[in-house]
Write a structure and sequence with these properties.
about 290 residues; alpha/beta; TIM Barrel; eight-stranded parallel β-barrel; 8 strands; binds flavin-adenine dinucleotide
Length: about 290
């Protein structure tokens, strides 16, 4: 089922994001996590597209596993990194053949060792171009794009970033999935700014439960998401106690999701980091509508 149908047919579009694991053992652990999370009836499970190229080929394999084993629609993430338009088109054909009907259309980060994103020769520079390519080649493909409530790290200003987001939507995106954030007011302001610009597709908040403070600090240092001082101080105080960090992170995410639900979000996209324990606790507390 493609994205627009999911948003039209469900009261709440819950999605879980995973990444292709590096070892067979972590693959088995991921399968157990996804089977467990599937009890909460996600509308779809998305699989990331390896930044450095190492796990890239696995994205479609995992999408097939999701659709066959979980009987749940999959969304394949897809980036412009190091690929020509011919290569991008060939991968899209493969995805369609594999039964994938939803793509997260992304530019991608600069490959390791490079500071600035440079399009491959004969490739694409922005996610809006990839979105247009997908929409042209597969008019019936569901397309998600990334949005940044606290601005993309490279963007010169929030205004220019929002204009570029509008270009992506106009190129054919069906929905926006946001970068992880911890301050709901940032998301709500972003939603208003999108609306003022004439962006009317569903905007789904991206939530990453904090279970390991050191890891989240590394992630937020890269993507620019702000950890509020109050939360950061609480986590800093228990930095030697992983169980306490987990509890604080889960409790914070539950409160964050409850407030977002009350603000009428159309769904939540969980960055589950291939684990199920935190998301399960959060989903049990939220008691979301299943269909
Ligand atoms: C939900 C989600 C899922 C993700 N999944 C993956 C994944 O699977 N694999 C992966 O490698 N990365 C993933 N990322 C990270 C993403 O690739 C990076 O954030 C990347 O730096 C930007 O990608 P984008 O699609 O937002 O790019 P774009 O929309 O192209 O924007 C990138 C930057 O360029 C600017 N820009 C856009 N268009 C123009 C233009 N026409 N002229 C000038 N400037 C412009 C924007 O303002 C922004 O600063 C994901 C991010 C999110 C939020």
């Amino acid at each position: 089922m493609r994205l627009t149908e999911l948003f039209n047919s469900r009261r709440f579009v819950l999605s879980i994001e995973m990444f292709p694991p590096k070892t067979a053992e972590s693959g088995e652990s991921l399968k157990r996590s996804l089977l467990s999370l599937n009890r909460f009836h996600p509308a779809f499970v998305s699989c990331t597209y390896g930044a450095g190229g190492s796990t890239r080929g696995q994205t479609l394999d995992w999408c097939q596993w999701i659709q066959q084993t979980l009987q749940c629609p999959a969304m394949a993430h897809f980036t412009c990194v190091s690929s020509t338009v011919t290569e991008l088109s060939a991968w899209l054909d493969e995805a369609w053949q594999a039964g994938v009907r939803n793509i997260m259309s992304l530019r991608g980060d600069p490959p390791a060792g490079q500071q600035v994103f440079t399009a491959a020769e004969g490739g694409l520079s922005h996610a809006s171009e990839l979105t247009a390519l997908i929409r042209r080649r597969y008019p019936d493909m569901g397309i998600g794009v990334a949005g940044y409530p606290e601005k993309h790290v490279e963007a010169a200003s929030m205004d220019s970033d929002l204009q570029h987001l509008k270009t992506k939507v106009d190129a054919g995106a069906d929905a926006i999935f946001t970068q992880l954030f911890f301050i709901n007011d940032s998301f709500l302001k972003f939603r208003d700014q999108c609306s003022a610009l004439g962006i009317h597709v569903p905007i789904v908040p991206g939530i990453m439960p904090i279970t390991d403070f050191a890891r989240i600090r590394r992630i937020t240092a890269m993507c620019g998401s702000v950890i509020p001082a109050e939360l950061s101080n609480r986590l800093e105080a228990v930095k030697e106690d992983s169980a306490a960090q987990f509890e604080i992170g889960v409790e914070y995410a539950i409160r964050q999701c409850q407030q977002l639900q009350a603000a009428g979000v159309p769904g939540i996209h969980f960055y589950a980091l291939n684990k199920s324990d935190a998301c399960e606790r959060i989903l049990q507390a939220l008691n979301l509508p299943v269909a």
